[in-house]
Structure formats: C-alpha cells, structure tokens
Write a structure and sequence with these properties.
Layout lengths: L3 E2 L9 E10 L2 E11 L11 E4 L1 H4 L8 E7 L5 E2 L11 E2 L2 H5 L9 E4 L12 E2 L6 E9 L2 H5 L6 E9 L5 E4 L11 E7 L2 E14 L2 E8 L2 H15 L2
Parallel strand pairs: 9-14
Antiparallel strand pairs: 1-11, 2-3, 2-5, 3-4, 4-8, 5-6, 7-8, 10-11, 10-13, 12-15, 13-14, 14-15
Length: 235
Amino acid sequence: MAPALAPKEYPYTVVGVLEIFYEDGGVMKKWVGSGYLVKTAAHPERKDIVLTAAHNLVFLRRPGPLELHFTVYGDRDVYTIAARRDGTLRYAIPEGYDRFPGNPAFDYAVMILQEGAGGANAPLTLATVGETLRTPATIAGGLSAKVQEGDRKVYCSAVTAEKRRDTALYYPEDATAKGMSGGPVLVEERASTWTSIGVVTGTGIVDGELKGIAAPIFEETAESIDALIASSLAG
C-alpha cells in the first residue's frame, strides 16, 4: 500500500512539509518531516499553529545556524517559525519526550509560524481517543525522497487505525514513508468534517510485527497540546 498523491482539497490543504536546515560538524544538512495546522477551543481564530512530531523539532535545539521552512500543501508561500523579541523560537516539546525519548506517547510538539499560512486554510480540530480503537483513517504527509527532488506535495494512505490499552495508535507499516512523521491521522466524523486523532511518529513493533505508529490524542494529550500552544505563544 504505497502512499498516493492526495487531492487538492480539505483536509490535505492544511498538511505541510517541514524542512529544517541545521549544522552538523560544520556541514549543513536537511531534515524532512511533516506537520499540520490545528485549532483549539482556546485559539479557534488562529491559523498559524502547527502540530508535528517532537523528533522533528529536536533539531532546533542544535547550536549553530539553522533555518526552517514549512510549505502548506497547495500554498505557494513558504513559512518559517516565529521568534520572540529575545530571539527564542516559538515552539514547545513535552517534558515527557525528554524523559522518555522515542516513546510515541510523547512524540508530538507545537510550533508557531512566523505569519499565518494563508487565510483560506481552515485548520483541523483534534479528537480524543479512548483506550481501544479500530476505525477507518487516512495518514498524510510529505515524502523525503520527493522533497529532495523539489516536490513538496502531500501524499496519503487509507488505513484502519487501531489501538489497544497497551499499544500506541498503529496501522500497516507500508502506509507511510520517510518524511511523513508529524503528519496527521485523519478521520471523517461527518460528511466533509475531518479531525485528527494522532500524530505520525514512525514505526514500532506491535505483537511481533512492524507497524506504523502514531502518538494518539488522549484527553491528557489534548491538554498537553493546549499547554504547549500557550507556552509557544507566551513572551
């Protein structure tokens, strides 16, 4: 099940390709990931809040020069991350990620764009999941190999997303490709009403099989995301 090109319509218009240029040993390198515009009850009017994977943004902690580009699907403009007056960048990673790096339960993060990403883009809402889940879903994001060729389109895969009490959100491993980390796990609640129930984080073992993994959005996760947004906007 190889990812297929997404149609140019909502909700794919709010999924973006994240490129971070950073210095490593005196050499400039590039990391490719994904992210998506979100809205919350506290900030329903904002269109500059991006939810992504925490492991995408750890590169922003590196010393030396760096540059961040975020391209929303179908939008010609390229956005960067906002900075405070003191030069610190407007992003936040859960403390749990630092305590348990690689744990998908904490592998989500928030960043604020330097300017709103196109007034026509309606950000996604977030939906919480319970201890168990089995539902049709769509995974979306950019592909590293394509981005390296200058192709910043968004790709998607239709899957059955599953969760049990003792697992992360998971789906077939071949539904994603490198670069889709940080993209949304989308579900259609009603006709043309889309929401996200998770953030793509990579792959992991479930019952001895390699699966695609996402950080599920629990009530506690949603509260944490709200706190990350508040922290990013403060100052």
